[in-house]
Amino acid sequence: MMRFSKDTRQRAIEKLQDRTLDLLIIGGGITGAGVAIQAAASGLDTGLIEMQDFAEGTSSRSTKLVHGGIRYLKQFDVEVVSDTVQERAVVQQIAPHIPKADRMLLPIYDEPNSTFSMFRLKVAMDLYDLLAGVTGTPLANKELSKAEVLEREPDIKEEGLIGGGEYLDYINNDARLVIENIKRANEDGALIASRVKAEGYLKDDNGQIIGVKAKDMLTDKTFEIKARYVINTTGPWSDVVRNMDNEGEEKLQMRPTKGVHLVVDNSKIKVPNATYFDTGLGDGRMVFVIPRENKTYFGTTDTDYTDDLAHPTVTQDDVDYLLEVVNNRFPQANIVLDDIESSWAGLRPLISGNNASDYNGGDNGSISDESFDNLIAVVSQYLNNEVNRDDVTEAILSIESNTSEKNPSTISRGSSLEIDENGLITLAGGKITDYRKMAEGAMHDIISLLAEDYDRKYTLVNSKTYPVSGGELNPSNVDSELETFAQLGVKRGLEVADARYIANVFGSNAPRVFNLVADLEAAEGLSLRDTLVLHYTMREEMVLTPVDYFLRRTNHLLFMRESLDALIQPVANEMANFLSWSESEKEAHLAELDRVLAESDLRELKAATKK
């Protein structure tokens, strides 16, 4: 049974041509996926096209956390953090197999321009716990002495260390979150196709958009898709898509910045849990160091980006910057370019000049106990709807003097929803944690428009309780439910570790993966686990290339690099059989994988340093 495969893609492309959709979504990253699940679940006739693979552009290139944005509390940006920690709890309910709760360690150094002092960190963490609703629970924050920080992380730099804090955060699998939303939308009847590019708009006599001209990137055939409304959810590309066929003035709102992450073996740098600290360069930036499988990865840089949107790359400057920061904080690490096993670069779809939730407070160095207590009291009232946002702003401004200096790290991660004169809806900005809320805002408007303009009435699904594919687990009992699923895999002949891996990745869909045992045995060169996962992703997750599989459906390319080379040929052989590739198609897919590996491995940079 194929639920979401190359065949369903073909059928979707045919069906997209024979009807008028209520809503066509352009862009299959997290924003488009979030709109698709809500639209399809609410009964709208929904379509989604993505010019690459799902999550390929930006949503597979994040820091891979669903983090609460404690950095925004430096600006006392209470609303952003409040939204974020509340949304994070929602994502954990609807996709309980994806975000995993973890402790974040934040060491504090006595250095010029440091983000937090011990006092400010305690303020921020208490406020954060209050907003997250975890005060007084085992998940509440802890203040750490210098000795306690060193006990947890013996390799961290001792000089200048004064203490730290530990607070709740979540490790995320960004690309998996996208595909699970997309799969649920597909189950609910949305017509979805990857590798289909919007190339222009269909317009009526009044210049209103009534659909798109699309191109199947696999066959080069062009076709038309008609829709009552078209929404642009293309992240960094949103200006490009907005200005396609635009006869008037160009609309420009995006200011993408680039973030880079590097992966090393955890023997090079050991951290027991995610760690977040000032760069130590006095540049106001902070960097994450995060353990994952047997690796440690670190990032992120934040630089304005004006090059090819489809191809942000890791430069020597990026590597130099991150290695300087990490080697300074972990003096024994001495990480060099050759130690980097894999890497990724991604763009943040920031909106330029978005001040809606940017306090960017200056630092006047000290907060009186009185104004701090006042702030905490006002925030508590705000959360109980007893006072409004303006009262919080006032309490904050009584502490902070406002500055408006913008560097890329202080631009708000706000989102925006706009409807152009031609009827195109654009949902842009935001961050992964807020995807559901952004989509909900857009869907409210779209459902109103459909009722007003077309007398088509829909009721919006309650997306706070609507699980993504694989998410049908009890969120308060995830571990034991996943263990029960894993035992099913063991009964089907899998090793315990392999069965647990599948349960963790696929959640309540794990039995569907295990059931493939009935008609598959381990392919030549592959374990039973890898054979089952590969087939499941081809049949039910629209995997069309080796890169889709190794990079975005599994994180194999990023976090298991040392075992990848041995799998390339067996995976390509199995895919070629299943997807009926010609020899030349297979060679082309292998060449593409090699290009992606060369970038991730930093092959060019490494070769240049050896000359």
Structural account:
With 611 residues, the protein is an alpha+beta fold. The protein folds into 3 domains: 6-59 and 175-254 and 414-454, FAD/NAD(P)-binding domain, CATH 3.50.50.60; 100-172 and 256-409, D-Amino Acid Oxidase, Chain A, domain 2 (2-Layer Sandwich), CATH 3.30.9.10; 477-606, Helicase, Ruva Protein, domain 3, CATH 1.10.8. Helices cover 39% and strands 18% of the residues. Strands 1, 2, 6, 7, 8, 9, 16 and 17 form an 8-stranded mixed beta sheet that branches. Strands 10, 11, 12, 13, 14 and 15 form a 6-stranded antiparallel beta sheet that branches. Strand 7 and strand 8 (209-216) form a beta hairpin. Helix 2 packs across helix 11 and helix 12 (478-491) crosses helix 13 (496-506). The longest helix has 20 residues, at 435-454.
